[in-house]
């Protein structure tokens, strides 16, 4: 039996990542696990959660960036063992979010190269599906509750995502325009891409 495949769903806030990663998990069950980043239950994740939900809790932008990356490193060994065991791992956000949100803040020195450096060595996904909702994240329920959920910030991050995916992505990154699509329609779009991957799975690991 070969290794499991690493499948990432990316996008701006409220584009349906959680909805779709959970549906995909059900579809691939029992041969898959789901990990959502930030993983807010770990010691580092708890600090990130406080930063996102409590706007009066200040941290330097560089420090929170490094914590988001450290949160991925906290889980990478467990991701690797799951893949080695033949199970697929579905990720809800990962390195591309880490870089795009931080570069989107326009802090001197925090360019793409600086931002990706702490993630260097993490495993590359075998497939990345970047969900784009042209109607904007604010069209979806619950938007505005957390720190980065403002229309201005989402527009900046949207621009950065394009640059980041061009610079750090490869042919395994696909953009899915989900504007005006129902949850079932998006699920089908994702299933097609995942079925393609699973009919021709990767054996070797690649890294950022
Ligand atoms: N961040 C994250 C960084 O800055 N650096 C990093 O390294 C990482 C990993 C939290 C924040 O952290 C930042 C980015 C974020 O600002 P998060 O916890 O993933 O990251 O936060 P969100 O993206 O906001 O996650 P959400 O769970 O809130 O949004 P989802 O998962 O994209 O959307 P979802 O599935 O919860 O759907 C939102 C709403 O839309 C509806 C759903 O029912 C739900 O009500 N919906 C649809 N409605 C109509 N049509 C469809 N097709 C729909 N699909 C879903």
From TrEMBL:
GO CC term, one of those recorded: nucleus
Pathway where it operates: Pyrimidine metabolism; dTTP biosynthesis
Residues annotated as domain Thymidylate kinase-like: 9-189
Stored PROSITE patterns: THYMIDYLATE_KINASE
EC nos: 2.7.4.9
Keyword Nucleotide-binding attached: yes
GO molecular function terms listed in the Swiss-Prot or TrEMBL record: ATP binding; dTMP kinase activity; dUMP kinase activity; nucleoside diphosphate kinase activity
BP GO annotations: dTDP biosynthetic process; dTTP biosynthetic process; dUDP biosynthetic process
Keyword Nucleotide-binding set for record: yes
EC top class, as a word: transferase
Keywords from the UniProt entry: ATP-binding, Kinase, Nucleotide biosynthesis, Nucleotide-binding, Transferase
HAMAP family referenced in this protein's UniProt entry, alphabetically: Thymidylate_kinase
Record family assignment: Belongs to the thymidylate kinase family.
Name this protein carries in UniProt: dTMP kinase
Organism, as annotated: Huiozyma naganishii (strain ATCC MYA-139 / BCRC 22969 / CBS 8797 / KCTC 17520 / NBRC 10181 / NCYC 3082 / Yp74L-3) (Yeast)
Lineage: Eukaryota, Fungi, Dikarya, Ascomycota, Saccharomycotina
């Amino acid at each position: 039996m070969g290794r499991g495949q690493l499948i990432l769903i990316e996008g701006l806030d409220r584009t349906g990542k959680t909805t779709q990663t959970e549906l995909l998990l059900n579809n691939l069950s029992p041969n898959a696990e789901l990990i959502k980043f930030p993983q807010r239950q770990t010691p580092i994740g708890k600090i990130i959660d406080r930063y996102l939900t409590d706007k009066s809790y200040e941290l330097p932008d560089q420090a929170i960036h490094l914590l988001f990356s450290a949160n991925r490193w906290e889980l990478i060994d467990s991701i690797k063992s799951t893949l080695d065991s033949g199970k697929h791992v579905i990720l809800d956000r990962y390195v591309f979010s880490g870089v795009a949100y931080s570069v989107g803040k326009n802090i001197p020195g925090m360019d793409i190269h600086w931002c990706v450096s702490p993630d260097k060595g993490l495993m590359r996904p075998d497939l990345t599906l970047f969900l784009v909702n042209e109607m904007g994240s604010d069209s979806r329920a619950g938007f505005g509750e957390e720190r980065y959920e403002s229309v201005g910030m989402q527009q900046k991050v949207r621009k950065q995502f394009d640059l980041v995916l061009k610079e750090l992505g490869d042919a395994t990154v696909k953009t899915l325009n989900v504007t005006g699509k129902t949850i079932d329609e998006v699920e089908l779009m994702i299933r097609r891409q995942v079925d393609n991957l699973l009919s021709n799975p990767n054996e070797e690991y690649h890294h950022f």
